[in-house]
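Backbones bend. To wit:
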Amino acid sequence: MDETTLITAGVALFTICNPIGTIPVFLSVTANMEPAKQRRIALVTGLGVFAVLTLSLILGAVILQFFGISVASLKIAGFLFVATIAWAMLTKTGSILPTQNQGSPAIVPLAMPVVAGPGAIALVIAFGKDNPGLVDYLWGILIIAVSAIATAVIFFFA
């Protein structure tokens, strides 16, 4: 795998996860919490993003094969889903996520589906399918780790 592929995959994953653009969601669901609890939720969200995307990378090809879904179909569906979310963000007013939550919002809704949503999951599954070697998977996990750490740091200081 060459450097261009790695950089492209990293930038694409960070862009699809969009931790900077989801800061308002993070602040909305943690609005009435103490700063220490908000920081803890930020770190747990990063761990959740890492877990969800790593499992998707490792098991995604098996799941696609089980359901008979091609990578091309997955890429198209992932693109359409991201485009639908973008359109909804442009046209809807108000939030579709609950702002009051009895439990911790770190995993649901923050880690999944806000940050590690269907678009990011489709991206890492396609990456794993296109790059099936062990070293490629290790690079994929490193890219996921960088994105998850960036998410945790951005939310931590939000």
In short: The mean pLDDT is 89.
